[in-house]
Amino acid sequence: MTARILVVTGTGTDVGKTIAVATIAAAAHSDGLRVGVVKPAQTGVAPGEAGDLAAVQALVGTLPTREGARYPDPLAPESAAHRAGLGFLTLDGVCGAVGDLSADCDLVIVEGAGGVLVRLAPDLTIVDVARTLHAPAVVVTAPGLGTLNHTELTVRELARAGVTVTGLVVGSWPTEPDLAMECNREDLERLTGVPIVGVVPAGAGALTPTEFQISAPSWVRPSLIVSPTHHDRQECIQ
Length: 238
Description:
The structure is a single chain. The protein is α/β, with parallel strands linked by helices. The chain has one domain (about 5-235): P-loop containing nucleotide triphosphate hydrolases (Rossmann fold, 3-Layer(aba) Sandwich), CATH 3.40.50. It is about 40% helix and about 20% strand. Helix 2 (about 50-60) links the parallel strand 2 and strand 3 (about 65-70). About 50% of the residues are buried.
């Protein structure tokens, strides 16, 4: 059976996408699923340095991964590629990486870069990836002031493109949330029409691998791992 594909995007940078990916991967692994992770574009990391995929593996353990392109400057992938004089990422390349992992995995998670309209390459965003793969998306969002606007705009853009949003994940929930955060946790679902399916505690990335793997399943709903909106076949990996 073809692997399930789940695209993880965010409302912007530094909202906790990579730790959210690790959380979903750990929860799925605890449920007996074989998990793979694709990072189409990694920026701000030099050749040989540890990137987001290494961070996921450090928390979850050994799992198959694919990195599509790597650029040294901490910029949007399109801009970083241009500055470095390196080739742009291609949609076929992303689909090929997903296809490679889907042969031996039950779930393949694709982590975007920044927000949904960040250019992975000219005329290529994570929205295009999700749409081509016919994959549902999870939106990782911040808890604080401003998140309602950013999250609603993100969900609207995905819906406009015909991408199903499976749920929202709050990427870093503090131990002492302020009033705005408490209100946002209630208002996010009401305003977007999308359920919060995960809440990752602040500092989760600093846990030991054992602590992280034991705790992660309690941070996300089981429905996020096996989504009823999943298509059994993905167009570009048939």
